[in-house]
TrEMBL record:
GO terms for biological process: tetrahydrofolylpolyglutamate metabolic process. This is folate gamma-glutamyl hydrolase. It comes from Zoarces viviparus. Residues 1-23 form the signal peptide. It holds the Pfam family Peptidase_C26. One of its GO terms (cellular component) is vacuole. Belongs to the peptidase C26 family. PANTHER family: FOLATE GAMMA-GLUTAMYL HYDROLASE (PTHR11315:SF1), PROTEASE FAMILY C26 GAMMA-GLUTAMYL HYDROLASE (PTHR11315). The active site is at 137 (nucleophile), 248 (proton donor), 248. Its EC number is 3.4.19.9. It is found in: Secreted, Extracellular space. The keyword Secreted applies. Gene3D superfamilies: 3.40.50.880.
């Protein structure tokens, strides 16, 4: 067992060096060969007064379950480390999830750490070392700030409303929706399968007028905010495995507050499942790994315990750090 393990390890390291040395942009269609992926989730800064007694940063369990349901393990990433420590973590994990929440997209620790990983991922992918990033809600907004180099958000309130997506023609040839059955693609445009809980977003007009966003991302879907503004609701990198949704796929299966319009229909659940599987499969294309099993075990979220938060937040359970 031990021998097999170490030879696999050597092969993976070798394969990684090979592809890094080629210095060719990553192929988005490469094979998913890593069946033990670990996706990092950046912790989020606590801003809700009711949550402050429990910790300075947190991850709602729904995001953890979302990633785990796709067949990956999760590493929580704290916001208090040095740049060199994030560089080390980057070499250990196979993808990154930027979750929703409330933080300054330029000056917060969340933004600072996200930027470090974003730059590492950009360079890695450009050199053939596949590394995916997924941004949900504020995580997607942050991706647009990182790509554009400026904050282009404006008021696009869609608070506690489930919507169908207005898919663009590019959605048909997207990677994100490639494996979807046609029945679900149809449902996606007709049924309220996507939960929206946001006040800001990127207007479609702004997206189309911004050279950097326009050339970096394909626009897969749009929606209309309460104030009538058309906003960007789903994007994916044209040549980088970076994905963003202004809506919340994790709530469809893992959040249940009655007052919240979380979509729980069979199609809503299928949508959430397929997106989790899609993103984790992107993680399987990354060959990054921990230096040894002990380091891996001590880094994963399994040793942390979420607390019940259903009686003081919109979440059911939360990990605090
Ligand atoms: C929430 O429920 C837990 C477990 O029953 C309890 O210990 C805690 O005091 C409750 N919190 C609030 C704010 O009601």
């Amino acid at each position: 067992m031990l021998n097999t393990g170490s030879s696999t390890y050597v092969c993976l390291v070798f394969a990684c060096c090979l592809c890094c040395n080629k210095a060719m942009p990553t192929s988005l269609n490469q094979e998913a060969v890593n069946d033990r992926p670990v996706i990092g989730i950046l912790t989020q800064i606590v801003s809700d007064e009711a949550m402050k007694p429990f910790g300075r940063t947190y991850i709602p369990s729904s995001y953890v379950k979302f990633i785990e349901s796709g067949g990956s393990r999760v590493m929580p990433i704290r916001l208090t480390l040095e740049t060199t420590e994030y560089e080390k973590i980057f070499r250990n994990i196979n993808g990154l999830l930027l979750i929703g929440g409330s933080a300054d997209l330029k000056t917060s620790d969340f933004a600072r750490v996200a930027k470090i990983f974003y730059r590492l991922a950009l360079t890695a992918n450009d050199e053939g070392d596949f590394f995916p990033i997924w941004g949900t809600c504020m995580g997607m907004q942050l991706l647009t700030v990182l790509v554009a180099g400026e904050n282009l958000l404006e008021a696009t309130t869609a608070e506690n409303v489930a919507l169908p997506l207005n898919l663009t023609p590019e959605a048909d040839s997207s990677r994100m929706f490639e494996g979807f059955p046609s029945s679900l693609m149809k449902a996606l445009t007709q049924e309220p399968l996507t939960g929206n809980f946001h006040h800001y977003g990127v207007a479609v007009k702004t997206f189309k007028e911004n050279e950097k966003l326009q050339s970096f991302f394909s626009l897969l879907s749009t929606n209309i905010a309460e104030n009538g503004v058309h906003f960007v609701s789903t994007i994916e990198g044209k040549t980088h495995p970076f994905y963003g949704v202004q809506w919340h796929p994790e709530v469809n299966r893992f959040q249940w507050k009655r007052k919240q319009n979380y979509p729980h229909s069979a199609h809503a659940v299928q949508l959430s499942s397929l997106l989790a599987e899609f993103f984790v499969n992107e993680g399987r294309k990354s060959l990054h790994q921990f230096d040894n099993p002990e380091e891996e075990a001590s880094s994963l979220i399994y040793k942390d315990t979420p607390i019940y938060a259903g009686n003081f937040t919109g979440y059911e359970q939360i990990y605090f750090f």
